[in-house]
Amino acid sequence: MNSIKKAAATVATAAVIAVTAGCGDGSGTGASPSAPAASTKAPTAGQDPLGREAVNRDVDEATAEAGLMGLSPGVDPDETDPTEIRLGRCTTLWAGSPGGPLDTQTGERPYSDALAALEERGWKRTGREQHGDTALTTFTKKDWNIRATLKESDRVDLIQFAAFHESCRAEVFALAEKRRTTGTAG
To answer: What's the confidence (pLDDT) of residue 2?
Structure first.
């Protein structure tokens, strides 16, 4: 399997981990998920009824405007596991860093610029938390949630935008909890 296909094959897993890492239920409140949100039917092959592509577009455009360099893999067309297929269609992930030589760029300014660009696209900021060297900002738009993180370090600042649709909230957090308790990442 080539590296691009591998990246696409792991987007749902990475989004699950990024969405749930550190703080509660993804709402930015630190709460734990209790009951599944109102469900929307799972998409069928070849459709995008949940609007994943529109979310991807918003994040890709916001990060490009902010001068960030990164990757947003698509859904793996060869995936056969039903859970991974569903999560791939109702989650998305963009990961990257400031576009410059190591030790010369800080992520704070472009991260803030990308957040502002999301707000310009109709995303509502719902929370902001700081956990040591990691900033977490949450957004909502319709039935989608974005968790934007900035992890600062002395070498390179890492920035992620992980999103999930409300219809798969329970699955995202159940899978993340399973992976936390079993110690598996994928």
So the answer is: 44
Residue 169 phi/psi, 5° resolution?
A: -55, -50
| Listed ranges 43-47, 98-102, 167-171; the one with the highest mean pLDDT | 167-171
User: Under DSSP, is residue 115 helix (H, G, I), strand (E, B) or coil?
Assistant: helix
Torsion of CA 93, 116, 39, 180, to 10 degrees: 40
The predicted model scores a pTM of 0.74
Please tell me whether residue 98 adopts helix, strand or coil conformation. Answer: strand
The tokens 């963009």 sit on which residue? 94
**Do 167 and 18 touch, CB atoms closer than 8 A?**
no
Cβ neighbours of residue 89 closer than 8 Å, sequence gap 6 or more: 42, 43, 48, 50, 52, 75
Q: What is the pLDDT of residue 43?
A: 43
What is the identity of the amino acid at 52?
R
> Tens of pLDDT along 63-77?
999 999 999 887 788
The residue extents of the domains of the chain are: 3-21+49-182
Asked whether residue 33 carries a pLDDT value surpassing 60, the answer given is: no
- Residues 6 or more apart whose CB falls under 8 angstroms from that of 137 comprise 28, 115, 125, 127, 128, 147, 148, 149
CB 35 within 8 A of CB 99: no
- Report the interhelical angle of 82-90 vs 169-182 (nearest 10°): 120
